[in-house]
Amino acid sequence: MPLLLDDRDGLRRCRDCGAWKALEEFCANSKRPSGRGSYCKACFNVRSRASYAKRLKEKHGRDVKQVPTVPDGHRRCPDCGATKPLGEFPRNRAGRGGYGRYCKPCHNEKGKESKRRLHGGFREYHLRRRYGIGEKEFQELLAEQGGVCAICGGAAPQHLDHDHRTGWVRGILCFNCNGGLGQFRDSPTRLARAITYLRGTTWQRALIHPGVYQMRSPTRGRRPSRLS
């Protein structure tokens, strides 16, 4: 095959920019010599974008949306349209550059909207994801307890208690009772020792006559000083 005017020594001249470049810098084209097209990749991309804009205008009467230039170390949030440093985007291993697509405020708002749309609200999502029951089952369990904390009897408890080993739901507790079980690590032994400790260190009120009580000192411990 004779050498064309735009080919020489493994190089090709781009028909648009006129620069001589290596064949690897031209787009693949099986109909051309050496399997490469007539335009370098940079010029081909310019032509491709111009062709797309022309077709979009002719068929749909719309112009191509111009994407603003983003400086290094920044990203543009497609939701709010703001350009922010990468540190204001959540980490995401699957995302471009290791960061999510939306900035943190927009990411959080989209997460809330998704929970409302798929689960009816964040509370329903939280109960289903962590405990395997929904708000309906929560209210049924609370009604079985008489609407009060299963331990202290306080009104309107909001904390769902569960066995940390099996994940099974045990009841609904108030904030203090739920936290107390957690501090004692759900251990009946520790709770029994705590009861024994309180009985041995707390002054008891004993009935000695109808309507008459006497304070009995604990078996151990000391009376607080007057200065304390």
Walk me through this protein's architecture.
The chain has three domains: 7-60, Wheat Germ Agglutinin (Isolectin 2), domain 1, CATH 3.30.60; 74-120, no CATH class; 123-197, His-Me finger endonucleases (His-Me finger endonuclease fold, 3-Layer(aba) Sandwich), CATH 3.40.1800.10. The chain contains six helices and eleven strands. It has helices spanning 41-60, 104-119, 122-131, 135-144, 175-183, 188-201, and strands spanning 7-8, 11-13, 20-22, 26-28, 36-40, 74-76, 83-85, 159-162, 169-173, 204-209, 212-216. It has a three-stranded antiparallel beta sheet, with no helix packed on it.
Strand content: 15-25%
Question: What's the alpha carbon Rg, rounded to whole Å?
Answer: 37 Å
Mean pLDDT, as a whole number? 87
Q: List the domain count as a whole number.
A: 3
Q: Unreliable runs, pLDDT <50, ≥5 residues? A: none
CATH superfamily of the largest domain: His-Me finger endonucleases
Keywords: Endonuclease, Hydrolase, Nuclease
Organism: Micromonospora harpali
Protein name: Endonuclease VII domain-containing protein
InterPro entries: Endonuclease_7, Endonuclease_7_sf, His-Me_finger_sf
List the helices and strands and how they pair.
Elements: E1 7-8, E2 11-13, E3 20-22, E4 26-28, E5 36-40, H1 41-60, E6 74-76, E7 83-85, H2 104-119, H3 122-131, H4 135-144, E8 159-162, E9 169-173, H5 175-183, H6 188-201, E10 204-209, E11 212-216
Antiparallel strand pairs: 1-2, 2-3, 4-5, 6-7, 8-9, 10-11
Pfam family, one: Endonuclease_7
Protein name: Endonuclease VII domain-containing protein
Organism: Micromonospora harpali
